TrEMBL record:
This is Phospholipase B-like. It comes from Pocillopora meandrina. It comes from the Eukaryota. Belongs to the phospholipase B-like family. GO terms for molecular function: phospholipase activity. InterPro entries: PLipase_B-like. The lineage of its organism: Eukaryota, Metazoa, Cnidaria, Anthozoa, Hexacorallia.
Length: 545
């Protein structure tokens, strides 16, 4: 027995050492979280599926494949409360990924704040604190009679566990991050709107920009391309997504969660999604759930800044409502009903919810197969768009689909001034998707279209590397160049999604374009712990538990 104890201690030491020296290469570790006498603790190097509340593995191959992969199961045994199950899951994630959380925060702090003043950062922190206080008070007062607030309490328990697991098992020789780091990481999408609302300089002054500057600015603001494609005979259906943001945000972890919650309002107990260290959400978004739903998202612009008066701390952030809708919804309509409640007006997106239960391969697409949701401050619009999908495809490229959202966002005036290439019908990516979606025959060609960028020769790109499906801001003219644009792609098909599987690639597209390397440029952006060059291929993602 003594030898066993010594061996377990030695293994734990090695795993802890690996956690503080991961940047030098790949590593894997696992652990189990126990709950005894009202306290949580973790045993590294142990996968105890019988006695632990939560157990899981973390495989970090960021440097060699572009991805880490996290698998966590919680509540599969025992009679634990839902809040205990969620706290333990968060605790395990915080402990396993602590070092990467520090690096990801350092990179994202620069993206968010750069040279902004400490006073501005303090205002953002105060806004997040006020919103969190309101939310926690609502959880206390409403959970007894509201399944929505009860489930929000479960999500907050996971969030609290994440912070506790990180704080009690911090990375060696690194600053231990405080609460604001986790508010910012999980709310970075919401911050994209909030920063403009709070900034003393106000929102962007589009009227003072050249067309090239507008294109570059829009490309840097965290946008994406998405496509849902059905084959002509309904032989298969594909869903894919390419994220656009700063390349400094490419510290990726693909996550697989299995949470055996008892609450009858739970629809999805398993979900797999692209994510980042310290995030309990995708951000991109790209989710596959055992409820049969696949959700992808792209960000829309709000040019009518008078809408910002509807942004309020007495609300649920977009990331909160996404987690709630994913957890509770059985179909796209229910997803929209959950999401539209307590709209914060931040991170204003188009969400596409594909319901695989309404897809009958080689037969039909039943009504409700595709539900599309759009948000602006003060309004959420949604509807069944299966009829459009039946014609072959649904594209998404950062321009609102619903007329009311489009008009209220200020697009008619913006298009009148800057031309039809800013419109829903004639945006460059709308034209490219319309031309090339018919070339998608299988998963390989689906990958190709979502990594596509042939800006030097494609007439629809007009020789601008931002005007394509997978943009490359680093290839702009030197005066506008920045390390931003399309930096990943995730794809799945009907059969894979049924098993919560996908294929994913990290990094800017090098499909006919040069590989991006940080060392080839002198950008000031932080890229701590990231690969130098992104010459990766697609990786198959599959849950272990």
């Amino acid at each position: 027995m003594a030898k066993v104890a010594v061996w377990k201690a030695f293994v734990s030491f090695l795993l802890l050492f690996a956690r503080i020296s991961f940047s030098k290469g790949d590593y894997s570790m696992n652990g189990t979280v126990y709950y005894t006498d009202g306290k949580y603790h973790i045993e590294f190097g142990v996968l105890d599926k019988e006695n632990g509340v939560a157990y899981g593995t973390y495989d970090d191959a960021l440097i060699t494949t572009g991805w880490g992969e996290l698998n966590i199961a919680s509540g599969s045994t025992g009679s634990y409360s839902d809040q205990t199950i969620m706290f333990a899951a968060g605790y395990l994630e915080g402990a396993l990924t602590a070092g990467r959380i520090n690096e990801n925060y350092e990179n994202n702090y620069y993206i968010a704040f750069g040279q902004k003043s400490e006073q501005f950062v303090k205002k953002v922190e105060e806004w997040f604190d006020a919103q969190e206080e309101w939310m926690r008070n609502k959880i206390k007062s409403e959970s007894k009679n509201s399944s929505l607030w009860r489930q929000m309490g479960n999500i907050v328990s996971q969030y609290d566990g994440l912070i506790a697991g990180y704080t009690e098992n911090p990375p060696k020789e690194k600053e231990v991050l405080g609460k604001f780091a986790f508010q910012l990481l999980n709310g970075i999408g919401d911050y994209l709107t909030l920063g403009d609302v709070i900034s003393p300089d106000g929102p962007p002054d589009w009227s003072s920009m050249t067309e090239e500057q507008i294109t570059a600015k829009l490309g840097r603001m965290g946008h994406c391309s998405a496509l849902i494609k059905v084959l002509p005979g309904y032989e298969d259906i594909f869903a894919g997504h390419s994220s656009w943001f700063s390349y400094g945000a490419t510290m990726r972890i693909y996550k697989h969660f299995y949470f055996n919650l008892r609450d009858p309002s739970t629809s999805a107990k398993r979900m797999s999604f692209s994510s980042y260290p310290g995030y309990l959400v995708s951000l991109d978004d790209f989710y596959i759930m055992d409820s049969g739903l696949v959700m992808v998202q792209t960000t829309n612009n709000v040019f009518n800044t008078s809408l910002y008066k509807y942004v309020s701390t007495e609300s649920l952030l977009a990331w909160h409502r996404v987690r709630l809708a994913n957890l509770m919804a059985h179909n796209g309509e229910e997803w929209a009903e959950v999401y539209e409640q307590y709209n914060s007006g931040t991170y204003n997106n188009q969400y596409m919810i594909l319901d695989l239960k309404r897809v009958e391969l080689k037969k039909s697409l039943l009504s409700g197969a595709l539900w599309v949701v759009e948000q602006i401050p003060g309004l959420v619009a949604s509807g069944d768009q299966t009829e459009i999908l039946r014609a072959g495809y649904w594209p998404s490229y950062n321009v609102p689909f619903y007329e009311e959202i489009y008009n209220l966002s200020g697009y008619p005036e913006f298009v009148k001034k800057h031309g039809p290439s800013r419109s829903y019908q004639l945006a460059p990516r709308a034209e490219i998707f319309r031309r090339d979606q018919g070339l998608v025959k299988n998963l390989t060609s689906m990958k190709h279209i979502l990594r596509y960028n042939d800006y030097p020769t494609d007439p629809y790109s007009d020789n601008n590397p931002y005007n394509s499906i997978c943009s490359r801001g680093d290839l702009l003219i030197p005066s506008d160049r920045s390390p931003s644009g399309c930096y990943d792609t995730k794809v799945t098909d009907y059969g894979m999604a049924k098993s919560l599987m996908s294929e994913a690639i990290n990094g800017p597209t090098h499909q006919g374009l040069p590989v991006f390397c940080w060392s080839h440029f002198s950008f000031p952006n932080k890229h701590v712990g990231l690969p130098d060059c992104y010459d990766f291929d697609f990786v198959t993602m599959k849950p272990k538990f």
